[in-house]
Amino acid sequence: MRVLLVEDDDLIGCGIEAGLRQAGFTVDWARDGHKANLALDTTAYALVILDLGLPRVSGMEVLMRLRDAGNHVPVLVLTAKGTVVDRVSGLEAGADDYLGKPFDLTELIARCRALLRRAQGRSVELIRYQDLTVNPAAQTVEVGNTRVSLTSREWAILLQLLTNQGIPQSRSRLEESLYGWQEEIESNAIEVHVSNLRKKLGAGLIKTVRNIGYVVEKG
């Protein structure tokens, strides 16, 4: 899943970006509020991690602009300001969760996963579909009682399809979920990854929707 990280501190940003990638997320990193606005105007994200103390445009302005535009993407606010007033202001402006600096990276990732579950209408981490058991936190997939090894790209496509059951995902939408700003999109990559998933998880799991893309039917 693709996440927008908005943080102007290089040390903190590098740590968060590395941790998120290790946890299986695709990450775009904007270092000021203006670039964050541009990113949000052009890309659909599963989650936004937003520092409030940003140059050019403040994090609070980014958040309010996002909500005024009707964008309901989950937002986790980060800030060095830790007073109750600051937390309340952020939440009332449209933030979904709040984490003060300094913070533990494992807690940040856990909060991100909790926000994504809530947005997807899930109360537990495991995703069960037919004979599949998928654990997003551990990045594991089992067919029956057999563990199946997936590449990071295959994993990302499977998760995108399973968390959008019944909603066809276009090739461009799948590419958006897989590739960040600095990553080159390989020719026919989506088709190859879907073919591999069908071989590993069963030919009937992922359906082709003609002239649209792919879908996992609602379970």
From TrEMBL:
Domain OmpR/PhoB-type positions: 124-218
SUPFAM superfamilies given in the database record: C-terminal effector domain of the bipartite response regulators, CheY-like
Main location: cytoplasm
Entry superkingdom: Bacteria
Pfam families with a match to the protein in the record: Response_reg (PF00072), Trans_reg_C (PF00486)
Annotated InterPro entries: CheY-like_superfamily (IPR011006), OmpR/PhoB-type_DNA-bd (IPR001867), Sig_transdc_resp-reg_C-effctor (IPR016032), Sig_transdc_resp-reg_receiver (IPR001789), WalR-like (IPR039420), WH-like_DNA-bd_sf (IPR036388)
Name the UniProt record assigns to this protein: DNA-binding response regulator in two-component regulatory system with QseC
Organism: Paraburkholderia ribeironis
